[in-house]
Amino acid sequence: MSDDDIRDLARAARLAETWTDALGISQQVSIGSLRRILDALGLATGTPGDIEDSRLKLGPPATLPPLVTMTVGSRLTLPGRTGGAARGQITYEDGSVATLRFSMRGDRLVGPPLDRVGYHRLEFGDRQLTVAVAPPGCVTIEDRAEGKHLWGVAAQIYGLRRAGDGGIGDATAVRQLAEGAARHGADAIALSPVHSLFAADPGRYGPYSPSSRLFFNPLFADPEIVFGPERVAQHRREGVELEQAALVDWRPAAEAKLGLLRRLYEDFEAREIAGGSKLAEAFDGFVREGGDLLQGHALFEALHGKWLGSQPALGYWRDWPTSFRQGLTRPDDPEMAAFLAAEGRTVRFHQFLQWLAARSFDAAQAAAVGAGMKIGLISDLAIGMDRAGSHAWSRQSDLLLGLNIGAPPDEFNRAGQDWGLSGFSPQALVATGFDPFLSTVRAAMRYAGGVRIDHIMGLQRLWLVPEGASAAEGAYLEYPLDDFLRLLALESHRHGAVVIGEDLGTVPRGFRRRIAEAGIAGMDVMWFERNRGSFRTPARWRRDAVSMTTTHDLPTVAGWWSGNDIEVRESLGLSAPGETEERQRDRRRLWRAFAAAGTAEGPAPAPGDPAPAVDAALAFVASSPAPLMLAPVEDLLGLTEQPNLPGTIDQHPNWRRRLEPPAAQLFDQPVVARRAAVIVARRP
Questions:
Q1: Model pLDDT for residues 638-661, shown as the tens digit of each residue
Q2: If we measure between CA atoms, which residue out of 591, 590, 620 comes closest to residue 603?
Q3: CA-based diameter of the chain, in Å?
Q4: What is the pLDDT of residues 306-319, one digit of tens each?
Q5: From CA 150, how far away is CA 410, in angstroms rounded?
Q6: CB–CB of 629/603 below 8 Å?
Q7: 3-state secondary structure at position 657
Q8: What is the C-alpha to C-alpha distance for residues 333 and 327, in angstroms, rounded to an integer?
Q9: Beta strand pairing status for 150-155 and 628-632?
Q10: Rounded to an integer, what distance in angstroms lies between the CA atom of residue 550 and that of residue 394?
Q11: Is residue 625 within 8 Å of residue 546, measured between CB atoms?
Q12: CB-neighbour burial class of residue 24 (10 A; exposed 0-12, middle 13-18, buried 19+)
């Protein structure tokens, strides 16, 4: 068995043997890394016989896949090795039926063009499959804009403030922010992720390490949406004192809110469910619609609470007793059945939490659109899931649990990055008709007017690191980009949702062109729009990307201008030599760019006076031809601290900062209203 055998198998598995680093230098993945990744993919490499068996697994399919994708107007094409009849019968979504004729072309069966968008059922011989016929691209921001160049606000939900929120921003604070922003001409509110985390462990509050992307973080729910303020007030016991804090104190705030929600559930059981009210019927309908996915998530939350509270605490499902490790694959196990009999109300409570959250965000989106916003809420879809979470437990075959998503070494992270997240198995996607991907996209779009896809390059490839290995020992695995883009376009039109892709960092050649052709907007961030050191004029920014001053992982404009971000990193031992001197040069470069664009005049202000730079930056970015400009709330307020400092966990208050003005009054602040007016005036 030679190294060439391993590399041949890696190529067949769509693993890249080489990759190009941030300096443009080609790097080769070691044989040891390839073998570990192949083994994690279920492709054994121990003996020549193992390798031959693995090759067979990767060969052409013997049967038709459960779902094929195509673009409307193109010809329906099927794998030819599947054989079968020369004709098939298609049942369209509207119930009409047609006969399709196929002919062999090379190793493919080619049928006629299809001109109806949707999910249609094809009977081919004795087999059936779904044909997903997609529109040419997603709903675009221009489709929603009706000739305008739009602007919106980017906000961290937990940081929004309102009376009665218990110390954590929620969907009603989002609604209040949207209504205020709409009065000043904004058409979108881009939010931090709302994904479910771990209800039993509120200390795990990083929004990009979700337990499940299919469900909500219930701490963002506002029960007043369902029960009204008076009824909620009757059950409030604690948490009010946390509302004035400058930082979210996640554990006590979460415990107080979950205590409130549990008392409301007990009251709901006694009054609505026992009485069979309309509200109880609505809840039952939500549970039925949620089906096995909702049941699995709620069961995980109940089990996680049980085992995390045991001695010793067992927070990772792989450490639970055998009967409870198998997700939903063994629902009739006696121990699991006994747990459900004893803790059925707890499972029901977690379904109740999801119902409240869904109602809350549904109301927020309706209010945003009702206030005149053309897009409304833009949700944020994290790149992966925590391997210790709900999705990993309940749907283990969906994921590559032995591999972590990360990034290769680059000039900013010489050792590479291991994010500790799990991604989808390409084989599982094909075998299930892309059900895990579709469920995730639908969840992100259900209560929003758009979705931002974090690290959208993951639709084409992911850097995967074997558990226990260094990040540098990973490799890129190719994913079915064409299928993903078609399904995104189809779901985008079904939900009327725009799609934005975070295309920052190491981007594959030609990738930005591909997503632009699919109607997906990229992201242009001021700090990165440079040309040989100078800052690029906004007129030369992309017309198919969203423009913004900064992101949650980068300095605010005031923080950058004042050098606060350098000072913070220096205090934590994270700074690099020469940063202060380089920042001085960059201030001059940026101010010259502002002056050339007509958003600033006169000499550059001192680092201790960042307000003029904030004004100029917002006007500068608003001048770009982007169809949508997003202004972070932190920049509208002129704050110096950024929401998250990459490379830190407990050393810095990441994902905890709260905004001082209440959400309902944020746009009543003179400085915010003035900056909003500048943005509106500068939008081309």
A1: 999 999 999 888 899 999 999 999
A2: 591
A3: 77
A4: 999 999 999 999 99
A5: 35
A6: no
A7: strand
A8: 11
A9: parallel
A10: 36
A11: no
A12: exposed
